[in-house]
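Researcher: For the record, we're logging two predictions in this thread. I'll number them. Prediction 1 follows.
Model: Prediction 1, sequence and structure:
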Amino acid sequence: MMNSLLLAWRYMSFHRGSTAVLVLALSLTIFLPLAARWGVQRFQQHALQRATSTPLVLGTKGSRFGLAIHALYFRGESPQAFHLQESLRIQESGLAEVIELHARFRTRGATIVGTTKRYFELRGLRLASGQPIRRLGDCVVGAAVATRLGIQPGDRLLSESDSLFDLSGPAPLNMRVTGLLARTGTSDDEAVLCDLETTWLIEGIGHGHAIQGDAAEENHQHSSGRQYLQAHQEVTDENVNSFHFHGKRSQFPITALIALPTSDKSEALLLGRYLAPDQTLQMIRPIEVVQELLHVISHLRRLFDLSILLLTMATALLAALVLMLSLRLRQREMRTFYLLGCSRGKAVQVVATQLLLVVLIAVSLSFLAASAVSPGLEWLFIRLMST
């Protein structure tokens, strides 16, 4: 057996080009379905884990999938906002603990998510460096955003105003980065997190009196128009006390609400509250929505598996053809084996050992490549799902 292995290896070493082509063809055939399956499995595990830790989500009526994706991944089109009063009603009922989310604005390609400290506890978020949010205008940045933008604690991020051509609208907010979040492998890595008041400031509900010239004394009507303000608003330790909000807090907007029911009965009562046809809000179970999405993905994976199966069969036939042609070209080599006293069985053993080595190398390369690529495929699936 060792002699057969040595002869097979010598042959492969001499014919490096043809051996490499054969190994590459087999590796790709094995790698594609393996990487796709592992990537989908990682994505399913990630999606189910995040959805399971989010029992209920409240938002305006519309697409259930859009609401779930917005609350879980902060992606897609932001649903219509509703009043914070609904959150206060749920808290007063004692049926659930609530975590408000306000995710309408972006900064340099990342979603700005206004929320509460309870959200950090729910997702298990911790700081890798810097300090937590300390005051209005502060934010902490997800690991992926920090890496992509080269952000460090102490840097500034300017919110992207949704009213760029409206000169009477609120100016963008220049937020102070106080900390960087540790990498979690979830959508929180792609977000910029701050408190709700900061997003309401971006919304234009609140403002400070950073007014140029003598207008501060002459115009005390709390105008936040750009004709009175600088190019952007910026909260500092010196002017933080001058910032304030207008209107009732209960009427301030949020785009979604995570509800953590106190019991199964409380969960059923909460779901029943929003079943009336005249309700403008809907309460969903994210786990049910995500399972529906994964069911669709499983059907697509079967189609992909079928196409890969056909590709594998075609590759196997081509490999068989190459092997037969190779044996024809190696007739003089086989004849030399016979003249040297090797039996036909020994010659077949050498060829079979060579084929086995090619398959083992291809399988090893495929497993290594699939294990390296599957995390990237998981991220791609999350991006595609939440776009």
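Researcher: Logged. Prediction 2.
Model: Prediction 2, sequence and structure:
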Amino acid sequence: MMSVWDAVVGQTQVVERLRKVACASPSDIPQSWLICGAAGVGTSQVAHAFAAALESPDHGESEDSQLSKEAREVLAGSHPDVRTLHTDGVTLSVDAVREVIGLSEQMPSIAPWRIIIIEDVERMLERSTNVLLKEIEEPSEHTIWLLCASDAQQVLPTIRSRTQRVQLTTPDTQAVAEYVAAKTGADNNLASRSARLSQGDIATALLYATDERALSRRDELVAGLLRMHDASDAVLLAAMLIEEATAQAEDEVQRNVEIQQQEFRRINGLSQSDRVPPKLRTAYNAIGKKDDVKRKVTRVSRDVLSRSLSAIASVYRDVLVVLNNAQEVAPFINQEFQSGIVQLAQRLTSSRALLCVDSIATARRRLAGNGNATLVFEALLCSLL
């Protein structure tokens, strides 16, 4: 038996709730939802699984070896009545929001519902949120809105009050490790380590299990943090983080552009050596448009830097574990650096370690607020000395 919920990790109560909703009479299904959870715990996966369950005749539960055609299309992002608004840039533009609002007012073409999924809704500018508000409050008869956010408190109260809240929890390490092993084929040691270092962030766990360089970058960051003794060390470490984040983002965005260009050629019957006909050239060139690529690189690099902040925060979490003699109830996240963390703990008091945690949280807010990344990390790392 297969289910659209198979890719949702560690959210048993949420799955049971949404399963029942998907099976309810259409008149009993709320049309505006806010799905919240820390970055990487699976808000987008839950939204797409819920959409697949709502659009499938079997409600996303198949007794065969594969899901229904409708469910497969939703999960693959190709269903004509399910639209996902991604955040390619730092914020969601008002034009993009207006576009999906126009789409939401159309009748579904083949399915019971027209479903609009908006990821990272907290990245919307206030004017974009105001444009969306009326649609959330009074959706079209056959439209369901699924909004995803990392923190409900970052979403305007007017949106929160008009939606059904779904709060995800952080999945435990064992559940993430089992999912990573099944998904990637990683051995138990690598899957367990990836799950431990990700701290419940499923996407990061998958990255660490499949990208050796990403895992070694994290090790280099923690080692550099533990070696840091003065402002020059801090500035050099900040420069390294920014440089690697930018390089990683550029590589990832360029790979995605090449994949999209290849898909464009396939759909239009062109080989890799064929010249793109003039009538298709504008659409083809738009895939790698310079401004769009630059915006996407900025977004991806911010995601990479956010992952670095999580790694830094995990070090000071481990320091607090040492200072509070809590190793038996709260095992180290950074087990590979235990001796260095113990030495760092010997130089700090609990109050000082907590101030460091606060500094990391401040840096995260500044980064989310589109602050200059170099200045954000230089200020943070100097504050940790």
